[in-house]
Amino acid sequence: MIEKGQEDVLAADLLRGHTETIVLGVLRSEDRYGFEIFKRIREATGGRHEIKEATLYATYRRLLKDGLIEAYWGDESQGGRRKYYRITDAGRAVYRRNVAAWALTRDLIDTLLDVDRNAGPRDSSSGRRSS
Fold first, then answer.
1. What is the distance between the alpha carbons of residues 73 and 82, in angstroms, rounded to a whole number?
2. For the chain, what is the largest distance between any 2 Cα atoms, rounded to a whole number of angstroms?
3. Where does residue 42 rank: exposed (0-12), middle (13-18), buried (19+ CB within 10 A)?
4. pTM
5. Phi, psi of 87 (to 5 degrees)
6. What's the sign of the alpha-carbon dihedral 121, 124, 128, 131?
7. Which of 30, 64, 92, 99 has the fewest CB atoms lying closer than 10 Å?
């Protein structure tokens, strides 16, 4: 039986491998500055998940190096200068590929775990669905 704290660790481990795709997803709709991306991720999960700032800034560097995002300095109209990030066409293509790969992986795992999305996993000993 997995306890509540362990569930959080497992979910964080699964999400960690998708940090770049998550950042690209946040940038699809509009350019954002670094801390704004952090806040959007936290808010989107209702505060259940945060990506550490150090992890995010390392991710920004990798995405920049790979040409998947671009960075520019915003104006100083609202306090200090902020570095903004924008997704590139290459970044959009990688995002679409990664989301498709995730959907395929999710479906395969659901199949392997015998999960019916509406009913939950099947209890193999009884043939009934468990909750």
1. 6
2. 65
3. middle
4. 0.77
5. -80, 145
6. negative
7. 30
Q: Given a cut of 80, is residue 79 above it in pLDDT?
A: no
- Contact between 53 and 15 under an 8 Å Cβ cutoff? The reply is no
**Model confidence pLDDT, tens digit, residues 32-77:** 999 999 999 999 989 888 888 899 999 999 999 999 999 999 877 6
At residue 117, the pLDDT reads: 61
Check if the beta carbon of residue 130 is closer than 8 Å to that of residue 121: yes
Buried/exposed code over 56-69 (b: 16+ C-beta within 10 A; e: otherwise): beebbeebeeeebb
Contacts of 56 (CB under 8 A, 6+ apart): 19, 23, 34, 37, 38
| More confident position, 131 or 95 | 95
Average pLDDT of the chain, as a whole number: 85
